[in-house]
Every structure is written in structure tokens, then in C-alpha cells.
Amino acid sequence: MGCFVGVWLTDEHERAQLLEIQSRLLDIGSAVATPLTTSSDTMVKRAEFSYAHVERLEGWIDAHDAALPPLTNFVTPSGGKSSVFLHQARVVCRRAERSCVPLTRDGAVPSVVRVYLNRLSDYFFTAARRAAAFEGRAEEIYKKASS
Predict the structure, then answer these.
(1) Torsion from C-alpha of 6, 13, 90, 113, nearest 10 degrees
(2) Which residues, 6 or more positions from 124, have their beta carbon under 8 angstroms from its beta carbon?
(3) Cα–Cα distance between 100 and 117 in angstroms, integer?
(4) Residue 53: which domain range?
(5) Residue 141 lies in a domain
(6) Are the C-beta atoms of 65 and 122 separated by less than 8 Å?
(7) Cα dihedral 94/97/102/107 (nearest 10)
(8) How many structural domains are present in the chain?
(9) Which tens digit of pLDDT belongs to each residue from 39-59?
(10) For the whole prediction, is pTM greater than 0.85?
(11) Which residues of 78-109 are buried (b: 16+ CB within 10 A; e: fewer)?
């Protein structure tokens, strides 16, 4: 997922946010690799993941939404290279979130990790839309197949 984020970093748009997200993804890796049920208190404290990161993402999502036209249709992954890579990051993020569900349910990983991944996928969606707008590229509207 961090690699897809890195592709967009080359375009300089929202660079600070994306650099922070790459660091938080490494933090999430530490949290997942340090099961609450079997790790020492010192290691758990070191790998702690704060809910403040979720709140920060929420603020960025709101800012992206405020800068975009309202979404009235489903859109397909489109809008230029940067946008498509961010849509790909969203797909990978959803997969990571689903993989975390049993870990959080069993108490091995703090639930905030799953919450962060959930909100991160929404961030990637709004960032993909912003990237398309930034590049002046149209988002393609989903069209249902006729029977």
C-alpha cells in the first residue's frame, strides 16, 4: 500500500499527508507484529497506535470532500495515473482491513488499527478524486450493464 502512495508522492500534491500516512502504515505493521496477547508490556507500549491518527485522517477526508463537487454517481477507478494508483491503494487497504478483523476480534491487535485502515480507505477514495481534479481529468461514471 505504501508503494502506491509513493507513486502519488512524485506529483507533489498532498505530499505531507501522504508521507505521514506512509509512516503510520509502518506503525500499523508494528502494532500487528506485536500481539497484545503475547507481547511484553514494554513492546506493546512501544507499538501503541493512537486514535488521534484516525481523527487526523477524518479531518483530511473532510477537507478533500469540501473541495470536491458532490458525488451523485458511482465512479470507476479513473481520472489519471495518480488517481488510479490511489484507487488501487484503497483496494489494498480494504483487503488489509478485512485481514485485521479476526486479529482485533481475538484481542491480538488494538481495534484502532482496523478503524484506521477503514478510514484510510475512505481517505484514498477522496484523495483519488482530488488527484483527478488537480490534474484536470474526468472521473468515469459507472454504467450498469443492460440485461
Answers:
(1) 80
(2) 86, 87, 89, 90, 93
(3) 9
(4) 2-134
(5) no
(6) no
(7) -170
(8) 1
(9) 999 999 999 999 999 999 999
(10) yes
(11) bbbebbbbbbbbbebbeebbeebeebbeeebb
Long-range interactions of 108-111: CB distance < 8 A, separation 24+? 108/35, 108/36, 108/37, 108/38, 109/31, 109/32, 109/35, 109/36, 110/31, 110/36, 110/48, 110/49
Residue indicated by cell numbers 482485533: 104
Residues shown for the chain: 147
Please report, for the domain that includes residue 94, its CATH number. Answer: 1.20.1200.10
Q: What pLDDT shows up at residue 119?
A: 97
Render pLDDT for 87-133 as a digit per residue (tens, 0 to 9): 999 999 999 999 999 999 999 999 999 999 999 999 999 999 998 98
